[in-house]
Amino acid sequence: MLFNRGSNLQIAGFALSTIAWVLCITSMGLPQWRVWYLKEPKISYPSVAFVGVWKVCIYHHDDLNNIRMCHRYSYSDTFIPLEIRVSQHLMLITSIFWLVGKVATVVALRDVYIGRKEQNVTYNTFGLAAILNIIASSFVFLSVTCNYFPIINKEGITFPTNFHMPFYPHTQKVGIAMVVALIAAILFLCSGLIFISYSFPLSTQVFPKF
After folding, report:
1. Do residues 89 and 54 touch, judged by C-beta distance below 8 A?
2. 143-147-150 Cα angle (round to 5)
3. CA distance 147 to 150
4. Contact predicate 86/97, CB 8 Å
5. What is the DSSP letter of 33?
6. What's the DSSP call for residue 140?
7. CA–CA separation, 104 vs 98, rounded Å?
8. For 66-101, how does the pLDDT look when each residue is reduced to its tens digit (9 = 90+)?
9. Which domains does the chain possess?
10. C-beta of residue 87 within 8 angstroms of C-beta of residue 147
11. Helix axes 8-29, 119-152, angle to 10 degrees
12. pTM score, two decimals?
């Protein structure tokens, strides 16, 4: 076996952390954080807008055409509400924390693989990865929460006039991107808890000679 039994669970934690990061990045790229249904009596079907962390996409449907227009946010945009701005920073910091945690996990797994004897070093490295993953989980969950409450409170956004969007949608609901981000938060948390539960394998402990 390349890895002893004591590290199998940590390998699973590493895999969960990687999946969580992929889902986190995916949710950042998707615009479907909030789904707005816009009431337009001139056409037979209501328009739909997807309000994301980094862009908003507007869909106009009629019997003949489906028109999509997307507008990416920039740091100079003043119309972006506080919850979206906070989510942008939290998701970016999460990616940085995951990268540092990944390096710490690789180092810890390498120490277990080569049978390194310094138990405290391995404990501390897995502990660092655990803390970073748990913080990443809390950041992603906070991003989801920041975008969830405006939905249940039916809050609007003052988009520029060239977006051709009303301040309030007719109805709005949670989008798939928010669900993906929530799953990422859960996986980050599970990964962190796995790293915390690490116990150094007895087979690699050093016993004093008498």
Report:
1. no
2. 150
3. 6
4. no
5. T
6. H
7. 10
8. 778 888 988 888 899 999 999 999 999 999 998 998
9. 5-74+81-193 (1.20.140.150)
10. yes
11. 30
12. 0.81
